[in-house]
Input
Amino acid sequence: MPPKNRKQTHRVTIELAAGNAPVVDLGKMLGQTGINLVQLKKDYDTATAAQRGDIVPVVVTVFEDRSFDLLLKTPPTAFLIRKALGRKGSARPGHESAGTLSKDVLRGIAQRKLPDLNTADVEAAMRTIAGTARSMGVGVEV
Output
């Protein structure tokens, strides 16, 4: 177990493909920190192997001794909505519809996003997800 009094030097949030993080993106964001990018890629890929095909944001905290910690987040809401629809949102939200999400799909997305939202209530999370869907031009069943 690493010492608790490590001094943090950098904290970066990066959205990467789960199970196959491109080293180029890691190098762009974290190259100046001097950490072992290959080890970071291996750690991220093994932690997200079960979610392959999704975009999984990670908060990388770099410490003075060039060690790092990874904090995985849930995929972005817009990504989950696009995945559920099978296509992108509307180019003109409010004017053109990009599809409709059922209540069950909305609940599934809300339950998946619940750890990263500022609520513990699934109904409130569903309202938050529905707002994102509407801003993408996606309708929601009532």
